[in-house]
Design the sequence.
């Protein structure tokens, strides 16, 4: 009997020990698995958007995903989660489906892309739709646009979806990657710089080019005038057109597809974590895979209780929550802790252990601990782990958190409570993706560069025009306008000038003569000029041709062209035959020494000189090299005994003299 009682008592004690061994420690809350938590959320609503992505996919976009999901035509369950390197999308969707127990199309959107889609109990081209969304859209299209493309392909049916997927895959394989949809701040600066450059460069180039053209026309003798308001008006209109067109062409206002989050979107995760810490000082993010098993959680709770009771110790809060750039704190663990601390209103040591990358950050708020040693003096093996931690799925966080508690126990106590420094605020989520205005940043330097570029370009254009014109004049010289000859014709022309001018004048006369069926004075002038060159036009360019002969050719060619146009053909200026037609006769001084005078036909400029300044005529006489030695120069009618001496007596006499010299009647 005593043995029976003893055996019963032993069994009761064992049962009681087993009960205590399996009981949840005080303050601990059993955390659901990732798949069961997500299945419960889908049971409440077929579209679940994580609160950890407010900068990229705010919670407020959930209705938009739900509206698109209805277009698939089958029950559709959508999970929008952070991109976690430790999760397998297909395996996660399978586990969620098993927990939920409902057939349909399950879609996982990680970050900004449709990462995985699997169908249970329904026939839809899920794989083809995923492929199209991946290859047809640029990487910055955003999750909503990506899901919209996915839904569109699902609605097309299997045959069309498969063909579209093959086409998209082949195009991408051949280098047909879609262009980006959004630009960044650096691209906006380039647009601003280009706008500023055009805004000053184009109008200034119009003004400078118009001035250059005006000078060229004036030199060429053109008389057609353009109203003065045309050039400034064109410059002002071009500036206005650029200023109005640039915002239409560069119409981007944001650098991302992400809509601005609401204040509720930005505070949702902090509120969730703070509420969880009120129940349990160890908060494991239910959206992430578990990284602590039951034994490790129990051990961590025990260490936290011991530290709280220790001298100078206090509460320890462990946050097993991933830190992503798309979160409200932009991935800054200290900012996240500051927000949770402000919400929880409890001092203590806050430990952020990222279940995705395994990093650990420690922040002291209000305990008598050396905050600097906690924030900056942790060994790398605790903060970042080692190679074994990198290879492990759980990053060995259980062991490292246990070692961290040992480090906390050994941290020196201070006389007064300390707190970590206040970190700078995260970038404003409301305007994080806004591009700077077009007329800002590099727009102002662009104004100066545009003006400088216009000066350089106009100078280059002028130089190239002059060079090209010189080359064309050398290859195919054109005659100068008659009304400018008295101002441009040289008094002592070079041989090259005479050859070039003779060739140009005679070529022009020949072309005009061939275009008309006339045989009058023009024919006589052309015939006489060709006689001087022995019938060979190319002799005008030969170096050995006599200068007096070239002058005679020029005079005859110009007279022939004048005859064809109905102008004066009987006399040319006797002071300088290169001056062109004469307007009358006048007694002029032909020598600077003495008062020798001669009655000569004169052009308008020479007549003015003869009346106003008679002693200036000798300096205007055409001079050719002396026939004897070639040194110095003589008036043309004394430097030769050829046909040119007949010029003062008229063009007809010159023609007769040429024919007499050539023996032609």
Sequence:
């Amino acid at each position: 009997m005593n043995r029976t009682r003893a055996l019963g008592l032993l069994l009761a004690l064992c049962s009681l020990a087993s009960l205590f061994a399996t009981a949840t420690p005080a303050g601990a809350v059993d955390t659901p698995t990732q798949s069961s938590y997500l299945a419960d959320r889908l049971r409440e609503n077929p579209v679940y958007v994580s609160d950890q992505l407010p900068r990229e996919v705010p919670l407020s976009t959930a209705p938009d995903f739900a509206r698109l999901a209805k277009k698939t035509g089958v029950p559709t369950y959508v999970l929008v989660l952070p991109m976690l390197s430790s999760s397998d999308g297909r395996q996660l969707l399978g586990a969620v489906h098993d927990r939920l127990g409902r057939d349909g199309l399950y879609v996982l959107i990680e970050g900004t892309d449709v990462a995985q889609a699997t169908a249970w109990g329904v026939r839809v081209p899920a794989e083809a739709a995923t492929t199209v969304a991946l290859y047809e859209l640029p990487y910055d299209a955003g999750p909503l646009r990506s899901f919209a493309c996915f839904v569109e392909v699902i609605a097309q049916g299997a045959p069309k979806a498969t063909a579209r997927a093959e086409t998209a895959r082949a195009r991408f394989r051949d280098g047909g990657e879609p262009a980006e949809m959004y630009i960044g701040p650096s691209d906006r600066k380039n647009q601003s710089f280009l706008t500023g450059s055009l805004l000053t460069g184009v109008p200034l180039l119009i003004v400078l080019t118009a001035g250059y053209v005006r000078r060229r026309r004036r030199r060429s003798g053109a008389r057609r005038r353009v109203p003065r308001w045309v050039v400034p008006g064109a410059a002002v209109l071009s500036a206005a057109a650029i200023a109005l067109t640039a915002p239409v062409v560069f119409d981007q206002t944001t650098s991302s597809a992400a809509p601005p989050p609401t204040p509720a979107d930005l505070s949702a995760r902090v509120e969730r974590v703070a509420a969880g810490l009120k129940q349990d000082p160890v908060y494991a993010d239910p959206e992430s895979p578990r990284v602590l098993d039951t034994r490790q959680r129990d051990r961590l709770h025990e260490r936290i209780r011991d530290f709280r009771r220790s001298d100078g110790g206090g509460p320890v809060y462990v946050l097993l929550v991933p830190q992503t750039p798309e979160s409200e704190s932009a991935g800054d663990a200290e900012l996240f802790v500051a927000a949770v601390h402000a919400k929880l209103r409890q001092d203590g040591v806050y430990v952020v252990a990222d279940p995705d990358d395994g990093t650990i950050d420690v922040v002291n708020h209000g305990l008598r601990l050396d905050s600097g040693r906690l924030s900056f003096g942790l060994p790398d093996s605790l903060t970042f782990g080692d190679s074994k931690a990198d290879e492990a799925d759980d990053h060995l966080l259980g062991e490292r958190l246990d070692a961290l508690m040992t480090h906390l126990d050994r941290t020196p106590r201070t006389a007064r409570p300390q707190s970590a420094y206040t970190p700078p605020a995260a970038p404003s989520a409301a305007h994080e993706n806004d591009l700077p205005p077009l007329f800002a940043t590099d727009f102002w330097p662009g104004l100066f560069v545009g003006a400088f570029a216009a000066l350089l370009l106009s100078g280059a254009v002028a130089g190239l025009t002059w060079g090209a014109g010189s080359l064309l004049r050398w290859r195919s010289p054109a005659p100068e306008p008659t009304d400018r000859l008295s101002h441009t014709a040289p008094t002592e022309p070079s041989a090259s000038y005479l050859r070039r001018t003779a060739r140009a004048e005679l070529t022009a006369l020949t072309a005009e003569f061939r275009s008309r069926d006339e045989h009058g004075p023009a024919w006589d002038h052309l015939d006489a000029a060709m006689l001087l060159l022995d019938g060979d036009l190319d002799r005008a360019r030969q170096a050995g041709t006599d200068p007096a002969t070239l002058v005679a050719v020029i005079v005859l060619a110009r007279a022939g062209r004048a005859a064809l146009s109905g102008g004066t053909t009987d006399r040319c200026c006797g002071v300088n035959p290169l001056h062109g037609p004469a307007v009358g006769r006048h007694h002029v001084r032909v020598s600077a020494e003495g008062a020798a005078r001669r009655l000569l036909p004169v052009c308008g400029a020479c007549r003015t000189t003869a009346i106003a300044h008679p002693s200036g005529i000798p300096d205007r006489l055409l001079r050719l090299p002396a026939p004897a030695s070639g040194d110095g120069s003589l008036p043309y009618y004394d430097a030769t005994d050829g046909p040119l001496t007949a010029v003062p007596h008229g063009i007809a006499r010159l023609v007769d003299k040429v024919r007499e010299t050539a023996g032609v009647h």
